[in-house]
Each structure stands twice: as structure tokens, then as C-alpha cells.
């Protein structure tokens, strides 16, 4: 038996719209990207949505649009996918890590203030594994110190904290559409914002620094080619139409896992705060109690045909980060403790009960043998 870690949920609707785009002859800068962006302004009730070719590109454009420069400090979490830190490094600014909350696995809001200095420009929280941050609190802090906030909601499309959707309270929010995300475009990303200036800069910079209403060969500023093609946008349009269905399917699978894993000793179920009013599950990540060797469990599951991953290796312990900043073990104890105990189990919309039963059975076996 083989069980995949993730899998995109693509129907005939996506396929047909892609076919339509290919037959139309308009493969980039056309009506589909606009339609895809309009789905976001509507769903999130925000002024602007700017589609780009990846979540990383979206984060990079936002760092640039906020004029972050050499030596400026950006407060963020070391427990994330590397892109949320790399976008800071692209502009030679300094990531200032704050350890995480052991339950939500998001940045510990109570530890942010002590890291704010004269050079701090931005707070960049990440909604880890889909769990939203308490953005009301983060925005209060930002206001007090006159900081900007970029919310990396790449893993949390549709999640809500006390009725507030991830990505909407910050100066800008970011989503991503790699195939393992809740919705996919193959590759892609989206910026949402109510700030006209940020929106205009991001629109310009995603397309070689052109003025948004100017000539093709008139470049106002340094820009990139971070555009999303019409083909990718077509997939995204349908995926957005299906978002509610997709979030519900994932929640159902998470609940089945919760039910079947709750009595297995040594397993800590994923935490969802009671203030989360809608949970959009990116991955299903359990933790193992400290006395269990997580890596051996992963090896056992892998040998049984079950794909699983140790999400995340702390960013500050990645080789390039150790080299650049001299980070070492012990710098962010909670992040490191959590990083050693997690397993992302197979989690996607096509997972059936038999798959889940097999995963649970093998996990139970592994824990009893190891
Ligand atoms: C997926 C993801 C991104 C963006 O990734 P891309 O592969 O560039 O689309 C950024 N931050 C986090 C936390 C992510 O999970």
C-alpha cells in the first residue's frame, strides 16, 4: 500500500477552462488573471489583489514595496517554510526571530515587543499549518511602534480568527498556490491589500517596473517578471470557486484523523484555538511526546509506503542561516523542541477511510515497537 503526503484536487472544470485559455491564444496578461484577482477582492472584501507567479515572489514584492533596505529589521518566526525569511534576505535586511507559542506554533505575541529596536520596520507573522494568528493583537503592537505588518497566510487561505480572515488585517496578506497548498495553480501567489500605494508598487514591480498605465517599454522602477500566466490563473479561478468545498473536505479528513488518533498514547493532536472560527487545514501535523524518537517513526512509516515529513526544520538551523548569522542549537528552544517532535501525515482531499486506517495502524505499530 502507498499513501501520498499531498495531492492537488483538480476536476474537469479546471481542465476545461485551461483548454479554453489555450484555444483563446491569450496566454499571459489577459482576462483570466483579472478574474482570478477579482475572486480574491470579493472573497476577502479588500480593495486590491495582485496575482504573481509564486508566494515567494509575493513576499519579495511586499518587502520591496515597504522600502525595506540593508540592515532594517523584520521580526518573524523561525518555525516556517524558508520563504517567509528569504524574502527579507533578498533585500539584505535582517530577520529577527521570535520563538513560537507551543500550542498554536505561531510567533509568540508576548515575546515580540522585547525584540523591537530603532531599526525594526516590519512584523511578518506566518499562519503556520493554517492556524491563524491573533492579528488584532499584532496590529495593536505595530500601531504602537509605527511598524508595517505583512501576514504570510500562504498556508491559511480561508482561516478565520474571531471571524477575521487570515491576511486581511495586516498592511498586506499573502497566499500561495503550489500543488500541496489548499488550492493550487501549479505555481502561483497572491497579494491582498487595502493600501493603494502598496498595490500600485506591487503591480508595477511584478511586470518589469512598468507604470500600471504606461507604455510597454517605459519602466518607472526596477522590476521583475513575477507575472502569473493565464493558464495558471484559469486553474485558480475554478479552485477559488471550489474553495468552500475544498476547505470542508479537508476539515472532514482532519476530524477523522482526530477521532482515530485520540487514544493512541504518545500522540499529541494538532491544536486549534477556540477563537478560530474557521480552520483551513494546510497539512495535518501531529506531535510525538518527547520520549519517542520521531525520526525512527518517520522511517518506519516511510518503509510502510506512507509518505510523511518532519514539518518544519527550524529556519535558524538551516545550514545557510547558521553560516550567515551564526545561529546555533538552543537559540529558540520552543521552536527546536517542536521541530523535533512533529510529523506531517498524509493529508489531501482524495484520502479515503482505508488510507487513514492504514496510516493510523502503522503509526500505532511504530510507536509500540520503537
Ligand atoms: C508555501 C509557502 C510560501 C510560498 O511558497 P511558494 O512555493 O513560493 O509559492 C511562503 N510561506 C509559507 C509559510 C509557505 O508555506
Major beta sheet summary: 7 strands, mixed
Strand order of the largest sheet: 1-9-8-5-4-2-3
Ligands in the model, by name, code or SMILES, are: pyridoxal-5'-phosphate
CATH class value of the largest domain: Alpha Beta
Q: What best-fitting shape do the alpha-carbon axes yield?
A: globular
Give a quick precis of the structure.
The protein has helices at residues 12-24, 31-44, 55-65, 83-90, 135-144, 196-206, 230-241, 243-261, 294-303, 319-325, 333-341, 353-369, and strands at 48-52, 73-76, 94-97, 120-124, 148-152, 160-161, 164-165, 172-176, 189-193, 267-268, 276-278, 284-288, 342-345.
What does this structure look like?
With 370 residues, the chain is α/β, with parallel strands linked by helices. The chain folds into two domains: 12-241, 3-Layer(aba) Sandwich (Aspartate Aminotransferase, domain 2), CATH 3.40.640; 243-369, Aspartate Aminotransferase, domain 1 (Alpha-Beta Complex), CATH 3.90.1150.10. It is 38% helix and 14% strand. It has twelve helices and 13 strands. The protein has helices at 12-24, 31-44, 55-65, 83-90, 135-144, 196-206, 230-241, 243-261, 294-303, 319-325, 333-341, 353-369; strands at residues 48-52, 73-76, 94-97, 120-124, 148-152, 160-161, 164-165, 172-176, 189-193, 267-268, 276-278, 284-288, 342-345. The protein has a seven-stranded mixed beta sheet with strand order 1-9-8-5-4-2-3, sandwiched between helices. A three-stranded antiparallel beta sheet has the order 7-6-11, with no helix packed on it. The protein has a three-stranded antiparallel beta sheet with strand order 10-12-13. Strand 6 (160-161) and strand 7 (164-165) form a beta hairpin. Helix 9 crosses helix 12. The longest helix has 19 residues, at 243-261. The radius of gyration is 21 Å and the shape is globular. It binds pyridoxal-5'-phosphate. Residues 54-56, 80-81, 83-84, 126, 152, 154-155, 176, 178, 189 line the site of pyridoxal-5'-phosphate. Pyridoxal-5'-phosphate is lined by residues 54-56, 80-81, 83-84, 126, 152, 154-155, 176, 178, 189.
Amino acid at each position: 500500500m502507498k499513501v501520498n503526503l499531498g495531492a492537488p484536487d483538480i476536476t474537469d472544470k479546471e481542465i476545461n477552462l485551461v483548454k479554453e485559455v489555450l484555444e483563446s491564444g491569450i496566454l499571459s496578461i489577459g482576462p483570466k488573471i483579472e478574474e482570478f484577482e477579482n475572486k480574491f477582492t470579493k472573497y476577502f472584501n479588500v480593495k486590491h489583489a495582485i496575482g504573481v507567479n509564486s508566494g515567494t515572489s509575493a513576499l519579495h514584492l511586499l518587502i520591496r514595496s515597504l522600502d525595506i533596505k540593508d540592515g532594517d529589521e523584520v521580526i518573524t518566526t523561525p518555525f516556517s517554510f524558508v520563504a517567509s525569511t528569504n524574502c527579507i534576505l533578498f533585500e539584505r535586511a535582517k530577520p529577527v526571530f521570535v520563538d513560537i507559542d507551543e500550542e498554536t506554533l505561531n510567533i509568540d505575541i508576548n515575546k515580540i515587543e522585547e525584540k523591537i529596536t530603532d531599526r525594526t520596520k516590519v512584523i511578518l507573522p506566518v499562519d503556520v499549518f493554517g492556524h491563524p494568528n491573533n492579528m488584532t493583537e499584532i496590529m495593536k503592537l505595530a500601531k504602537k511602534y509605527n511598524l508595517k505588518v505583512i501576514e504570510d497566510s500562504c498556508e491559511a487561505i480561508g482561516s478565520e480568527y474571531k471571524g477575521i480572515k487570515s491576511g486581511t488585517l495586516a498592511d498586506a496578506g499573502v497566499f500561495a498556490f503550489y500543488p500541496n497548498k489548499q488550492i493550487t495553480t501549479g505555481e502561483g501567489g497572491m497579494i491582498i491589500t487595502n493600501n493603494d500605494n502598496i498595490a500600485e508598487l506591487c503591480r508595477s514591480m511584478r511586470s518589469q517596473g512598468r507604470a500600471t498605465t504606461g507604455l510597454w517599454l517605459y519602466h518607472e522602477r526596477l522590476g521583475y517578471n513575477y507575472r502569473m500566466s493565464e493558464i495558471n490563473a484559469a486553474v485558480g479561478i475554478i479552485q477559488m470557486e471550489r474553495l468552500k468545498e475544498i476547505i470542508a473536505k479537508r476539515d472532514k479528513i482532519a476530524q477523522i484523523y482526530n477521532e482515530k488518533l485520540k487514544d493512541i498514547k504518545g500522540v499529541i493532536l494538532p491544536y486549534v484555538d477556540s477563537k478560530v472560527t474557521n480552520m483551513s487545514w494546510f497539512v495535518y501535523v501531529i506531535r510525538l511526546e518527547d520520549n519517542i524518537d520521531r525520526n525512527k517513526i518517520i522511517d518506519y512509516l516511510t518503509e510502510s509506503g506512507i509518505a510523511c515529513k518532519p514539518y518544519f526544520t527550524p529556519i535558524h538551523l538551516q545550514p545557510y542561516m547558521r553560516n550567515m548569522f551564526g545561529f546555533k542549537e538552543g537559540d529558540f528552544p520552543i521552536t527546536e523542541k517542536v521541530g523535533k517532535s512533529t510529523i506531517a501525515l498524509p493529508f489531501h482531499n482524495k484520502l479515503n477511510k482505508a488510507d487513514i486506517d492504514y496510516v493510523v495502524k502503522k503509526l500505532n505499530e511504530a510507536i509500540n515497537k520503537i
